[in-house]
Amino acid sequence: MSTVLFAEAYAGFYEELSPNFSKTEYGLFFDDYSRFEDPFQKVEGLEAIEHIFVDMYEKLHEPRFVVDEVICSKEVAYLKWQFIYAMNPKEETQTFTGVSRVTFSTLGKVLTHTDYWDAAQHVYEKIPILGSIIRLIKRKLHA
């Protein structure tokens, strides 16, 4: 199979993610050699990656991904996505955009998945004191 087919299937996996997914579903794309990295963590292996998603569903209200674009070269895929979530059922839904760089093995398993998104804007600015400091710094830089 080609990187394009792997990437399209992987994008579908992300859009269908569910708190009910089992190790079997995660095992379709990840194995003990898969590596996952985002602004907060860097892990390796099926169990560690599965834990990231289980944790996401425990901490956020109805999180989901919408994949807007899939672009492939011979060995690399880039997925542009929107992450939609609420901190809890009473709060407003929030959305932010990110990009994932993904490489696949010849069997279609993820070798590397690296997420790129602005943690300062989407997380740190929402922490009361830290957010005020970050917004002040941004204003100074844009002045």
Keywords:
globular; alpha+beta; 143 residues; Nuclear Transport Factor 2, Chain: A; six-stranded mixed beta sheet; 36% helix; 5 helices
Counting H and I runs of at least 4 residues, what is the number of helices? Answer: 5
Number of strands: 6
Largest sheet, order of strands side by side?
2-1-6-5-4-3
The domain count comes to: 1
Indicate the CATH class.
Answer: Alpha Beta
Shape: globular
**Over all CA atoms, what is the radius of gyration?**
16 Å
Strand portion, in percent? Answer: 25-35%
Q: Describe it for me?
A:
Pfam families: SnoaL_2 (PF12680). Residues 29-110 form the SnoaL-like domain. InterPro entries: NTF2-like_dom_sf (IPR032710), SnoaL-like (IPR037401). It is globular, with a radius of gyration of 16 Å. The chain has a six-stranded mixed beta sheet, with helices on one face. It has helices spanning 3-16, 23-27, 46-59, 119-122, 128-142, and strands spanning 35-38, 41-44, 61-72, 76-86, 94-104, 110-116. The protein has one domain: Nuclear Transport Factor 2, Chain: A. The longest helix has 15 residues, at 128-142. It has five helices and six strands. The protein is of the alpha+beta class and 143 residues long. Strand 5 and strand 6 (110-116) form a beta hairpin.
